[in-house]
Write a structure and sequence with these properties.
141 residues; Glyas_Bleomycin-R_OHBP_Dase; 8 strands; PhnB-like; VOC family protein; 33% strand; four-stranded mixed beta sheet; 2,3-Dihydroxybiphenyl 1,2-Dioxygenase, domain 1; 2 domains
């Protein structure tokens, strides 16, 4: 079984995913607008330009996915720390690259550092309000 992370945004999913693409590389495997959906004529111009679904492979086995909420359908976004995306890179250098790239203009909770449990770890909230953990375990290599 594969498990992928699905995120919600309030009108800036594509902007966020262009940022994530700049860090992870690769290409979108989907980028569909709300205006492409049946009954799109019921949406405002702004809502038609929102993202219905976008997906970006970030590793061999992981696809990061998202959509924008649609306020006219009663959706509302509630950012919070009830979930993190936890990345486990293959090297300390890759951990640093991901941490510095994704945390740009965000809020760092714990800078990358060697931890008492033996891993190299850091956490932050990116500029889009998404919570991330970067954890490199040298023993897992």
């Amino acid at each position: 079984m594969k498990v992928n992370t699905y995120l919600n945004f309030d009108g800036n999913a594509e902007e966020a995913f262009n940022f994530y693409k700049s860090v992870f590389g690769g290409d979108f495997i989907a980028n569909i607008k709300m205006g492409d959906a049946p009954d799109a004529h019921k949406l405002s111009v702004e809502e038609k330009n929102r993202t219905m679904h976008i997906s970006l492979p970030i590793s061999k086995d992981t696809i990061l996915m998202a959509s924008d909420i649609v306020p006219s359908m009663g959706h509302s976004l509630k950012n919070g720390n009830s979930h993190y995306i936890s990345l486990h890179p293959d090297s300390k250098e890759e951990a640093d690259r991901l941490f510095h790239g994704l945390s740009e203009n965000g809020d760092i909770e714990m800078p990358m550092a060697d931890q008492f449990w033996g891993d190299y770890f850091g956490s932050f909230v990116d500029r889009f309000g998404i919570f991330w953990m970067i954890n490199y375990n040298p023993q897992a290599q």
